[in-house]
Amino acid sequence: MKIFLLAILLVLLPLAFLKLCYAISTIFVLGKTKGALFVSTSRAKIEAILDNLPMEPETRLVDLGCGDGRFLRAAFKRYGVKGVGFEINPWAYFLACLWNLLLRVPVKIKRKNFFKEDLSRYDVIFCYLFPDLLLELSPKLQKEVRVGTIIVSANFPLPGWEPYLILRVEDPIYFYCKRPS
Question: What is the pTM of this model?
Fold first, then answer.
């Protein structure tokens, strides 16, 4: 019986610690994320996006709010794209860096607010953000991105933009392309 209890403790304590790290990290960035939680993009969505978004190894890809970095790793695995991710949640940032290190994936993860980044250098912009953040992001994209830049938004539409493609994989995925004014 003692061995059984010890085994349960050895499993439950690390799980409780991990949950506590997630909760503290979420609270730490609540003001900046406006309540958005770190939620991983499903593999089915990532595959559908990559199926409809052919890229070359030299494509400049950015993931805004990259979470654990799984979209960037999938893009590297499929196309050889060495993207950049921005993540302010300390737990998600730690997980992204850890996975990239363990899997030896050469994508960059920056613990920086992407609103302070110049997005004009990127060819493809991916985001899985809540509507209130997309509302704030939309004018920044209109102002900064170059004509021809592809923007992909998982789950929520980008205000003021007209999608050229909407996929339905669990939830909608919106594809946009910056057009000349």
Answer: 0.82
Please say whether the beta carbons of 157 and 133 come within 8 A: no
For the record, the structure tokens of 108 come out as 């960059």
The tens digit of pLDDT for each residue in 105-146 reads: 999 999 999 999 999 999 999 999 989 899 999 999 999 999
Q: For residue 131, what is the domain's CATH number?
A: 3.40.50.150
The mean pLDDT value for 10-18 works out to 55
Beta-strand pair 108-110/150-154: unpaired
CA 87 to chain centre: 8
Per the structure, the count of domains in the chain is 1
**Domain encompassing residue 167:** 3-177
